[in-house]
Amino acid sequence: MYLSSKNLLVVGSVLSFLVALLHVALTIRPKLYDYFGASKLSELTEQGSSFTVWVTLGLVIMFFVWGFYGLSGAGIIGQLPLLRLTLFGIGIIYLIRALMLPSDILKFAQHARPFRFIILSTGSLLAGLFYLMGALMTAK
Predict the structure, then answer these.
(1) pLDDT class for 1, splitting at 50, 70, 90?
(2) DSSP 3-state assignment of 69?
(3) pLDDT of 114-127, one tens digit each?
């Protein structure tokens, strides 16, 4: 696959849309909070709190917007406001989340955390790199 800014941003966008859909699944099946290590949110939901639903829906919207920014940077949809700056911001936020990867690897090696956490952190690392490299390669 040729690593053009368009391809990088499309892949980053797809990852953002997948994360958004994962969060939609969390609102539909709150027990999944436990599976992804957010047992406190699962407890709140079981107690009838709507807080988790609202926060999760906010994240759904955020990740969908990020996906659209990736598509905009790739030239698939019209240019969104502050495009390059936002692409850099998205990439940096994903990379901040990816900082958990060494801890996830260590805890997995100690049998204290499942492998899926490594996958999630690696996905954040890749998405962050795709957004940042795509933004760097786009015309100014």
Answers:
(1) low
(2) helix
(3) 999 999 999 999 99
Integer CA distances (angstroms), 95 to 15, 34, 108, 129, 138, in order: 14, 24, 20, 7, 19
What distances in angstroms separate CA 109 from CA 16, 98, 121, one per listed residue? 28, 18, 15
Euclidean distance between CA atoms 43 and 40, whole angstroms: 5
| pLDDT tens track for 27-46 | 889 888 888 888 888 888 88
The pTM for the full model equals 0.92
From 134, 102, 123, select the one nearest 3 (Cα to Cα): 134
